[in-house]
Structure formats: C-alpha cells, structure tokens
Amino acid sequence: MSINIKKEQQQHVVRTLWQRLAIMAILGLVVITVLFGISQLVQKAANVPAGNGPTTGSGAIAQDVSVWTQTSKYDFDRGLIYQVDTSASPGDVVLAMKMQTTLDHFNDERYINSGESQNINVTDGKAEVAPLRAEGTLVSKNLLSQAVLRLESFSYDVSIPWRASARVQFSRDGVKWYNSEGILDSWDDLSDGARNIDLSKLNWSGGSEFYYRMQLNAGGLLGFRRPSVKEVGLTYSTYYSSGSIASMVFDSGVENAQWDSICWDATLSMNATITFEVRASDTFFTRDSATPGWTSVEAEAVSNNSYRASVDLPSGRYKQWRATLSTSDTSTTPVLHEVRVYYY
C-alpha cells in the first residue's frame, strides 16, 4: 500500500512540473511575439520615406516617395545636350567653350586708333609706314566685344623688306604694354610672312579689352622700301552665353505619378543663372518630342548651392526635366552638379 502511495505522489510531482514548464513556455512565446511585433513597428516607423517632409517638399503629410537622381557624366550624357559640356568637369554640366577670332584686313580703320598711331597709312588692304618716314607706329582699338575665358594667339601677315623690321606688344588697358611672355615694356619681333604668336603665357582671362601696338621700321631708307601689314587677328576662347540640357525620359512605372519636387545642386557666379522646366505624361514620349509642353518652375534656395521647386508640377508616368544655363559674363559659367526628382 505504501509503495503505491509513493508512486502516485511521484507521478503527481512530475505532472505538476510538466504543467509549469508548459505554462512557462507559452508565456515565453507570448513575450517573444510581443517584442518582435514592437521591433517591427519601430523599424517600420524609422524607415518611412520623408515624403513631403523637409527634404523634398512642403512639410505636409508624409508620402511613400521615390527619387530619381542624375549626378554622373553617364547620367547627363543620356540627355539632349545643346551648347553645354559634360566632359570639362566629369559629373558636372557647364557651358561649352567656343573659339572666336577678330580679324582686321585693313579695308578700313575700324580697329585702328588713329589718335595714337603715327606715320601710318592705311590703303589698299594694308597698313604701312607713310612715305618718306623711317618709322611708323600702329596702335589698335579694342579688339574684344565680350569677356574672354582665355587668349589663344595673335596672328599677323607682314611684309618686311631687306634691312627693315617690325615688332609688336600687347595691352589689356592701353596703358601698360607687354610682350607675349608677359614682360612689361618688352616686344615680340615679327618675321616676314604669315605667322602666329602664342598668347597663353599672358594668362589674361576675364577681361573684355585687348590692344596691340606694332612698330614698323624702314631701316633708315626713309620709307622707300616700307614694311607693311596685311592682316592681324586675335583668337580667344569664351563660354557660350547660354546652353541647355534636357534629361532622358524617365519611366517611373506608376500611372499618373505625382511629381513631389525637383531639387538640384549648382554653383552660380553673380552673372550666371540656371532655370528649370519640367514635363510629364502617362503616354510615352522621346527626349526631343514637341509634346507634352514644358512647364517652367519657380526655384527656391535651400542652401547656398541647393535649390528646389515643388509647386504646380505636372503628373504622369513619364517624366523629363530641362535646365538652361546662362551667363552675361562669357568668361564664367554656371555649374550644374546634380538633379533629383522626387515622385510618388
């Protein structure tokens, strides 16, 4: 009898122990489930996109916003480019450079400063030492009509008889005169025929004035065999005053996709601007299509080099932007670094 009682007591203890273990296991699972659910909620809250919040727009109710970014040379080269350059500073868009030349064939005195020139005759497409004069000095007017990025070269075509000579010097203000090496009050000797003088060592950029002074010496022959100049030219580089880049057409994959905002980073000088236009449609169009029409956007400065537009932007699955770069000082260019389109 006592043996049976002991067995029943042992079995009761075992059953109680298992029951307690089962209850603890169930409670543990409940705790784990609750903690996991809380962590998911926290993670989801942390990963909610900014939407119309401070980084993209107006600060309204948060949306599930996506972003399309263009920031590399590859990105920009897929667009439609007109008078801009994506290679000068890879990853940036700047105005393209162009070479220009001012030529004087001496058919008139348009580029000659008659008040400063001495003993010079201009006839029959050439400038030469006046008769019975041993020496003459030809001084030009300003050969530039705009600010230059860089001076390239000075060309000339002169006839220098035996014992005669010719030389030239340059100025950016008509007061101080230099040779092509940038040495004050020095000259470049000219050779007979058509030649070029490299002006890169002058390192004159940003200015809009250039003058030359040429001295023609008859070699003491009192002008009987006079040196003459048939042509002079100044070649220089400038930026285009305006240019544009239209992006590739972006497929958002969402019908009637809303354009939350467009943001861009740029460096602007005092005389430079960048303006933006946008367009969108649920019907596919190519980057150079005439339709849909472009909508100009009003930019607001976010910081010194960042800008944003978020008002009256069109909706549509396919989206495109166009930036126009402009400068009133053709020795400088605006720089477009990056463009971001936020949509939902």
What does this 3D model show about the protein?
The chain is mainly β and 344 residues long. It folds into 3 domains: 1-47; 66-95 and 241-343, Jelly Rolls (Sandwich), CATH 2.60.120; 97-239, Jelly Rolls, CATH 2.60.120.260. It contains 2 helices and 23 strands. The strands form 4 sheets. Strands 1, 3, 4, 17, 20, 21 and 23 form a 7-stranded antiparallel sheet that branches. Strands 2, 15, 16, 18, 19 and 22 form a 6-stranded antiparallel sheet that branches. Strands 5, 6, 7, 9, 12 and 14 form a 6-stranded antiparallel sheet that branches.
List the helices and strands and how they pair.
Elements lengths: L1 H45 L19 E5 L2 H5 L2 E3 L1 E2 L7 E3 L1 E8 L15 E4 L2 E4 L5 E5 L10 E10 L5 E7 L16 E2 L3 E6 L12 E7 L10 E12 L2 E5 L3 E2 L7 E9 L4 E10 L13 E2 L3 E2 L4 E4 L8 E10 L7 E9 L1
Antiparallel strand pairs: 1-23, 2-15, 3-4, 4-23, 5-14, 6-7, 7-14, 8-13, 9-12, 9-14, 10-11, 10-13, 15-22, 16-22, 17-21, 17-23, 18-19, 18-22, 20-21
Number of helices: 2
Portion in beta strands = 35-45%
Overall number of domains: 3
Q: Bin the helical content.
A: 10-25%
Largest sheet: 7 strands, antiparallel
CATH architecture of the largest domain: Sandwich
* Strand element count: 23
